[in-house]
């Protein structure tokens, strides 16, 4: 068991016998009164999002998740297919499950998928991932950034020295350019 104040984004908690993924966490101190914690929670079974406010010392049951390495195979329409590297079992996840992480999925890449009782919870990506630029605006002599499109359809701004087919490192949490691969 842990307190609401000790619970952080990315963890899973048991609230009233339902499992919730903590996607956002904010604490508020009200002068002399106790600190409250506001959390944005995703119900693992239904996928619905809800906001809840807890006292900082409320006790929450922590849930241990299974973390397995999967290989990303392909997507078809709005379904993304992954294969367990150990037993070759495949799982399909919808675009709602993947969210903006789809911009970091390249065929053949390996990722960690968290599950609880064989139900999908969340994808864990490396903080920095390598992507290839497939389209860039023509270089105009200025110090302004240019917009590029990567092999995963991610659009982002980069320095004007980046050209088509260059490999770049992108931060998966901020969706920002980090550096050009040398």
Q: Count the strands?
A: 16
Taking pLDDT < 50 over at least 5 consecutive residues as the criterion, the unreliable ranges are none
Please state the structural category.
mainly beta
What would you say the CATH architecture of the largest domain is? Roll
Strand numbers in spatial order across the main sheet:
1-6-2-3-4-5
pLDDT average, as an integer?
Answer: 86
Q: How many domains comprise the coordinates?
A: 3
Q: Class of the largest domain in CATH?
A: Mainly Beta
Q: Please give the share of residues in helix.
A: under 10%
Please give the largest β-sheet.
6 strands, antiparallel
Radius of gyration: 20 Å
Stated plainly, the CATH topology of the largest domain is called SH3 type barrels
Description:
By secondary structure, the protein is mostly beta strands. It folds into three domains: 61 residues, SH3 type barrels; 59 residues, OB fold (Dihydrolipoamide Acetyltransferase, E2P); 53 residues, OB fold (Dihydrolipoamide Acetyltransferase, E2P), CATH 2.40.50. Helices cover 2% and strands 55% of the residues. The protein is built from one helix and 16 strands. The strands form three sheets. A six-stranded antiparallel beta sheet has the order 1-6-2-3-4-5, with no helix packed on it. A hairpin with a 5-residue loop joins strand 3 and strand 4. The radius of gyration is 20 Å and the shape is flat. The model has no long low-confidence stretch (mean pLDDT 86).
């Amino acid at each position: 068991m842990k307190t609401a104040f000790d619970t952080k984004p990315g963890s899973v908690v048991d609230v009233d016998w339902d499992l919730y993924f903590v996607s956002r966490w904010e604490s508020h101190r009200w002068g002399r009164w106790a600190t409250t914690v506001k959390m944005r929670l995703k119900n693992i079974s239904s996928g619905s999002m809800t906001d809840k406010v807890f006292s900082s010392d409320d006790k929450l049951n922590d849930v241990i998740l299974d973390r397995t390495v999967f290989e990303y195979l392909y997507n078809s329409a709005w379904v993304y297919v992954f294969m367990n590297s150990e037993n070759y079992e495949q799982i399909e996840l919808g675009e709602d499950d993947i969210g903006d992480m789809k911009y970091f999925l390249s065929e053949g890449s390996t990722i960690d998928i968290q599950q609880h009782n064989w139900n999908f919870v969340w994808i864990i990506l490396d903080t920095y991932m390598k992507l290839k630029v497939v389209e860039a605006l023509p270089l105009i002599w200025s110090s302004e950034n240019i917009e590029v499109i990567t092999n995963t359809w991610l659009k982002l701004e980069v320095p004007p020295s980046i050209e088509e087919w260059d490999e770049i490192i992108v931060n998966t949490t901020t969706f920002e350019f980090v550096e050009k691969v040398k």
